[in-house]
What does this fold into?
Amino acid sequence: MDRNAGQKRAGAYLYPAIEPFDQRMLDVGDGHTVYVEQSGNPRGVPVVVVHGGPGGGSSPAMRRYFDPAHYRVVLFDQRGCGRSRPHASVEANTTWHLVADMERIREALGIKRWMVFGGSWGATLSLIYAITHPERTAALILRGVFLMMQRELGWFYGGGAGAFWPDLWTRFASAIPEDERDDLITAYHRRLFSGDYAEETRFARLWAGWENALATIEHDAGRGEGPSEYAHAFARLENHYFTHGGFLEHDGWILDQKVRLRDIPTVIVQGRYDMICPPRSAWDLSANWPRADLKMVPLAGHALSEPGISAELVKAMDGYRASAVAMGF
It folds into this structure.
């Protein structure tokens, strides 16, 4: 990693901004349409970008981690968020619907195999996709690993992270009556799905604000919760997935299935001081996986926009440019 990464803004490491050459709404069934775009080189090595959340949505900045002359960059908004419709809907919205949507996108775009790039929940979904479709996954590039385990949810919603940010934790937890605070995910679920839009939005902003405030190591207490519409989708979808354990068969399912990933070249970029997804998950994932290269970034937190994180991700994608033939492209 660039030794000066912590002194520069993330944008200093990214490629220039580009516009998509293709944008479409793809009908994926169940009443859902998913936003899909392509940018970069139409004949380049395909890479699909899997955003976080669940419910975060993609952004133009995500196009900039890839050499546009070499990569064909596919972004999409997962069901219920971003430009996908219906907005904030949890109907027919599970991990397995999203895996199937990724396959529909790949087939619709005529892509045989692609690299899969995702962070946070995007890393979770990338791993689950690769476990399910290893033959379609040429490489994995993961950031801020989240394995959808109860220990991770307990850390972030049970007071672990709150021990480092007691002021912000108090704001998040005290919105709930004291007799419900032993299970904040369930307590927030009642309010995020109350049917009262004003109440849902109020608690959505609190939910999103707690996570957003801890995303970067250079925390700014004034960091906002984002627009109400964004927070409503983000909080409802994230809480829906967490309430159902990511719709996985059992706790620790991803680690139990790791053998299916053994032949996939993988780079894992992890912030040493990630308060949302602590490094233990990245460490456990990379253990006894010879093809996984764990990059622990000092003085970095969780966000994609952290300078050190951005520097390592761009470096990883630049490094893969010479491997296209070996990966079957």
